[in-house]
Structure formats: C-alpha cells, structure tokens
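From the pipeline queue, job 12 of 40. The input is one protein chain; the requested action is below.

Action: predict structure.
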Amino acid sequence: MSVDMSSQASDSNEEDFEEEDNEGAEEEDQGDMTYYYEGVAGDVEQAEPDTFDPEEYQFMCLTYRESQRLLTEEVNHVSSSLKVSPAVAKLVLVHFHWQVSQIIDRYKSNSSQLLCEAQVQPITTCRSLTAVASLQCGVCLQFVRRDALLSLPCQHSFCKSCWEQHCTVLVKDGIGVESFTRVIYSGISCMAQDCSLQMPEDFVLPLLPSEELKDKYRRYLFRDYVESHFQLQLCPGADCPIVIKVQEPRARRVQCSRCNEVFCFKCRQMYHAPTDCATIRKWLTKCADDSETANYISAHTKDCPKCNICIEKNGGCNHMQCSKCKHDFCWMCLGDWKTHGSEYYECSRYKENPDIVNQSQQAQAREALKKYLFYFERWENHNKSLQLEAQTYQRIQEKIHERVMNNLGTWIDWQYMQNAAKLLAKCRYTLQYTYPYAYYMESGPRKKLFEYQQAQLEAEIENLSWKVERADSYERVEGELNATDRGGL
C-alpha cells in the first residue's frame, strides 16, 4: 500500500516496448537495514533546521527509451574496451551486474579468465573440425555438410535445424538459465551436455522463426539487462514500463513517477523499513504458509469487555469506545483504556516463557504458534488500520473541499488536518513493519530497547489516530476558527 494513499494507474508494458523498439530498431543480498541510519547524526548537523529527512533517497525514473540509451552506452564502452562484439559485451555485463569499471580492470589483469568466468569463452576448446568435410549433428545424429553446422566458441557443432528448435522452445516456453535468485534469458546455453557457454543475442535472433518470437526474446533481454544492473530496477507496478535508477543501490523507499507504486529498491517488495529485505521475505513466506492457521484472527469484530456487545472496528485507531455503554478499551488486549497509558507498551511486547525449552515438543510447538500469532495479529491490525485511515483521509479531503467552497476558511486553515493524516499513515506504515523485525530478533537487552521504542511510537500513533478521526467533526464558531477545531492536533 502506498504510504501517501495515492492511486495506481498503468498502461500496457508490451505496447510501450514495441513502440519504442520499432522507433529505436544479480544475486540479492540480505539488505542493509542494520545500517539504515548510519551517519544520520552528521547529516543532521549539516542540514538546515526542519529540512533533513533520514529516509530521503535520490533516484530517477527512466522511460524505456532513456534506460535503453543508458544500457547501449555502457555496452559500447565495454565492447570497445574488451574488443568483443556488443552481443558478447552484454553477456559479460549481465554476469558482472554492469560494473563497468571493475570489468575493464579485471580484463586488463587477466582477459581470458574474465571471459571464461562470464561463460562467453570456453576454458578449453574441442578438437579442430576444419579438416572434416561431412560431420554428424550431435543431437539428431544426421550427417550434414560442415557449412550446415553451427557452433559457439566451444566448437560443439549442431545442425541449424536443431539450433532453431532449441532456441524456439526455450523462448516460447519462457525457459532460461537458472541462477541463484532468478531466471536469466539473456544467455541461452549451448546444447552440448555439461557445456555452460552462453549464446549471444546475435546468434539466437537469426534462429527464431517469427517476428513474434524475436520480439518476445527482446523483451526478455531488456528485462534481464535491467534486473542484472546494480543501479537499475523495474517498477513492480502492474504493466508499468518505468525503470528506477539510483547512484548507490540500497534498501530504500522509491516511488514510480508514472503509477505511484512505492517499493523497496533492493528487493522490489513493499517498502519495509526497519525490517531488512531477507527478514521481510521470510516473514511474508511464513504468513503465506500459515495463512489458514491465522484465519481466525482476521475477523473484524470483538465483544465489548464490559457489556459484551459485538463491536466492529471501523477506524484505524486501537482506542475503542463502545457505542452502547461508552466503555473505552484497547482493541488489541481489551484492557481498560483509562489505565492503559502507563502500561501501553505491554500490548506490543511478547512475553516469552523462559522455561519453554524444558517442556515437551508439543508445548514448544504451541508456544511457537502463540508467538507467531501475537506478532501476526499486530502486523495485520496495522495493515487494516492503514486501509481504514486511508478512507478517513479521503473524507478529510472532501470535508476540506466542502468547507472551502462554503467560505468556511481557506485551504491553509484546514491544512493541519491533511498533514496530520499523511503523517499518521507514514508512521503507522513504519510501525507495521517493526513487528516482523521484532519477531525474528533474539531475546536480550537490544530487543528490550527496540520494544520500548516500538511501544512509544505505538502510543503516539494511537493518540494521533484518535484525534485525526475526530478532528474533522469540529465546526467553526461565529466565522472564526475555534481553538478546539484542531482536536489537539
């Protein structure tokens, strides 16, 4: 969900690609959230008051044409420096994540090793085939003339028909070379057994029988080039062709200028600070695996702890007031809100059983499930609160517009309500992602400190949420803004 509650809009990616194409005819690490705010203190000292944002991250949104131009410049540079064809240069760049300066330095040091590591040059070549007039294809076992055989630098020769079928099937079925984290289509490997030499695009394209397949292959190539580039990332928005470019790749918040999608640059998942990329992947996988187990906590209703009437949560705030008996209580723990303030942090802190290691496996399993459900319930609750508060934000916008149109103040008079709602969304979004982080933290002083800070943020957010939901109900008095209009904001 976008923090600023902006909507998404998208067009067909394929149409954009084809239009531009006709006109123009890495392993993931574990993120860097541990050092997310490293150096912030020094930055604050240098920044002007009220201008520094520790989450600020410089990035650019590139169109297909702009990103293609950027890639072409780097390909030409490497091609001329390594004295190889542009198609081979692309394979080298993909393998080394487009680290141009490192590629050139390594080539100067040991050119053969670099090309072998990129799988564009074999370590050893097969016997020479020039003396043989007629040879057998290694796949179909048919004897054909030597000029009807094709081979890569590894000298594994196969007839053109077999090469065509090989490339056609792989491109049509969308099957590429498996890497540690993704599928790479930019280099289809040799057909010979145990040969990993990659086929450059100028070898593959003439073997594809139709323009449709060639276009599909070019789209695969472009996606691979972008995804393997250490400074580029495709926008994960639906059918969005925008490419995000950064100077230094980090797990930071970026937003597409076209579809307004907000995501983490490093892993392309929803933005998840302070949780790192590896942890959020584990958490989301666990939530998907245990979705049926957690279904019972997805209900939107609970009973009032005083009069037992069924209550539905229709706002983001956890400070609930029963519509029947007016009892104030906490949605999460059902405790009395009057005595909740001083012990609020207990709501967000899981109390582990110190003696659980000495109990049975069944007891340990129940405790593990209990712990997971504790954190999942709070994670899910903040996600639902975000959705409900997004509706509140829209109502506030409508109220402001209505009041301005009725001459009940100016936009500036009512701006505080909009700013408060935006700040609430940003803070709650961050708070939501503290729970996966806390779930995987080891018990100890560091976790206690984290939970204390988490609780302070939670208390402030609930206080702000309570006020935001009620601020737009205040009216002007005798044509002037009353001090109570802000509702404490």
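Job complete. The CA atoms of residues 362 and 368 lie 10 Å apart.
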